[in-house]
Amino acid sequence: MEALNHRLFLWINATPDSPAWLLSLATFIAKDLIAIVPLLIVALWLWGPREQVPSQRALVLKTGIALLYALGISWCVGQLLPHPRPFAIGFGHQFLPHAADDSYPSDHGTTIFTFALAFALWHRLWSGVVLLALGSAIAWSRVYLGVHWPLDMVGGFLVGLLSCLASHMAWQLYGERMLEATHYVYRTLFAMPIRKGWIRD
User: Fold this and answer.
1) CB-facing half-sphere around the CA of 21: CA atoms within 13 A
2) CB neighbours of 87 closer than 8 A, spacing ≥ 6?
3) CA-CA-CA-CA torsion for 90, 95, 99, 102, nearest 10 degrees?
4) pTM
5) Is residue 49 reached through a cis peptide bond, with omega within 30 degrees of 0 on the bond before it?
6) Cα separation of 148 and 129, whole Å?
7) DSSP letter string over 120-159?
8) Residue 97, phi then psi, degrees to nearest 5
């Protein structure tokens, strides 16, 4: 597997001869595109057609649970199976500054793939497909810029899949109670903007 990992990395990784515009695009994707996760979560919780807000908030909370599981599993895997980043062993070319911490599985890959899979499973298939495409772009960019191995991204996808399964099982046990408690806290903290109609009740 390690030999395959190295071959795939060299096939994707940029070189000093790579176009400057492509390096700039990859840097934007690698650093900034992940912001779609918190932006979508906030927008789906605060706004939307009144009849769709309850299902949107259930999706947000269920996705949030999956993300917590995912980051917890990712941390545990990183501790149990430490793996250096390519630049930490002098392999390939690095174009994005990054700490030389463990690379497997990718935190960016874990986050965006968990988010995408959650939307594919619990929202609309088309929205999940769009987010999976964005996740694939983020995965490509971070390998292209030399801060991750390809299998780090595969690991992030698998952790996301496992975390969505865990979240779905947990939701059957305490999801509705958690949603009610979260609603109570939200209405208490945001009573004024809710009253003024800036955000949904």
Assistant:
1) 0
2) 94, 98, 100, 146, 147
3) -60
4) 0.94
5) no
6) 23
7) HHHT-HHHHHHHHHHHHHHHHHHHHTTSS-HHHHHHHHHH
8) -60, 135
What spatial distance separates the first Cα and last Cα of the chain, rounded to whole Å?
51
Radius of gyration of the chain (CA): 19
Q: Which of 99, 80, 197 is nearest to 148 (CA)?
A: 99
Other beta carbons within 10 angstroms of residue 59's beta carbon come to 21
**Longest distance between any two alpha carbons in the chain, whole Å:** 60
Tens of pLDDT, residue by residue over 58-75, are 999 999 999 999 999 999
- Quick one: 25 exposed, middle or buried, by C-beta within 10 A (0-12, 13-18, 19+)? middle
CA-CA distances (angstroms) from residue 155 to 42, 45, 90, 109? 27, 29, 22, 8
Q: pLDDT of 21-47, one tens digit each?
A: 999 999 999 999 999 999 999 999 999
In total, the chain counts a number of residues equal to 201
